[in-house]
Amino acid sequence: MRASRASLLLAAVVLAALASLACTLPGARTASTPTPTATASPTSTATPGALSEAQAEALLRRAVCWYADPAMARTCLPLQPDARAAIEEMAQSGDRRFIAPLVDMADLDIGWWPQVDVALRRLTGDRADSPAAWRDWLAKHLPAPTTRGYAEWKARLLSLTQEPDTKPTYRELLTERLGAALPLLHWTHAQPNASKPLSTPRAVTGRTATWLEADEVVYGLAVGGTARAYPRRIVAWHGAVNDVLGGQPVLLAVCAPCGSAVAFDRRLDADTLEFGTSGLALQSRTLLHDARGGRLWDPLTGAAVGDPKIALALVPMFTTTWADWFARHPETTVLDLTTGTLRDYSPGAALAEVAAAPGPLYPATPVDPRLSAKEPVLGVTAASEARAYPVAEVARRRLIRDRIGAQDVVIVTEGDGRAIGAYDATGVEFLRIIDSGVDLVVADRDGNRWAMRESALINEKTRDTRRALATRQSYWFAWANAHPSTSLFAP
Fold it and tell me: Does residue 362 belong to any structural domain of this protein?
């Protein structure tokens, strides 16, 4: 992660220097270099008080050098005097609609931070010591008023950072349909698809994957009679894996800052979607995009940002060790270490930056204080309610009987670091776990034995089943921010 950011910033500096030279040469703005789109500008003696919609829009356009062709915005780096004057006029205006855009500008850190910081202090009457701190301030003071066309303006702002020919463009990703999420969207200093999402990647047999260590984490999927393991050390670099298992298109959405990986069905209505990474984060959840509709997607919930009614179906998955998964599925395949992308796939390398951060890697609203921000939890949704179970508590108890709303549930695990499953317990009183070798077996009050599978608990005698419930493992802050009304398991 650090290497990719450093490369991007170095490229930006070089381009900025070239642009600066071009802008200072006599006659630099010629017919081949269009001038910014003309818009009525407020006077430079703006007094405190709300500006008209047209005046506010004009100031923002001057700040990002608004061209008819958004790609031309990069020619305005480093900042020209008129852009600096526009920031000063925002500060003098007293108009709080500029707060969210100024926080967006602070995120980019391309030479205007001191002026932006002063403007934010004047407009808010508050102080923050960094762009991240201002993003935190904004999150605490939502909803944030914004100007007309804020989505397009933010897309134009991020165009200042976008490499030529990068697809998708931010103008395709940032639209008004994102609604109230727009002010919270944070640029991660990565270009869209810079993480090189994987599509139908090569897999090898489990027996040949001798490079895998027994206790390392894998994400295991068993779909349509086909089992496959996705080592965390690989997929954490890529953010998204588009695959087909047992004839079913699946997405493995990996959000390293969230501490999560979740599997979804890639089919939506009549379409099969292909997912990539956006370079944007919402509440420190790194968002995905789909190549067809240009929507942004939450990697933890599977919902379209701005329209949670549009959501991908969950595919049951186990987060467990390689030894555990291989014992369960001796015929499993494994994502090949050769992905076609140069990365340090040694254990832990992909997550080094996340692991070193004491809290969320990117800005997020204040963390629910019931647990520490990065406490691993199992999030369960049932009966339209959400509940979190600390993973350490589940591992200690191994079997938890609970009721979420009107839904009886049972949560079982083989132990620390092993697969955890949450299941519908309607009509069955599960009592204890029986260690029986490869498969975890749960005994009920009537003496029946139930085998633990990814999709269900299966009665070994009657073949009756109790379906798996929707679960995700993540850090507490990510689950709580995605499910603000979540309850927390109370032993």
Answer: no
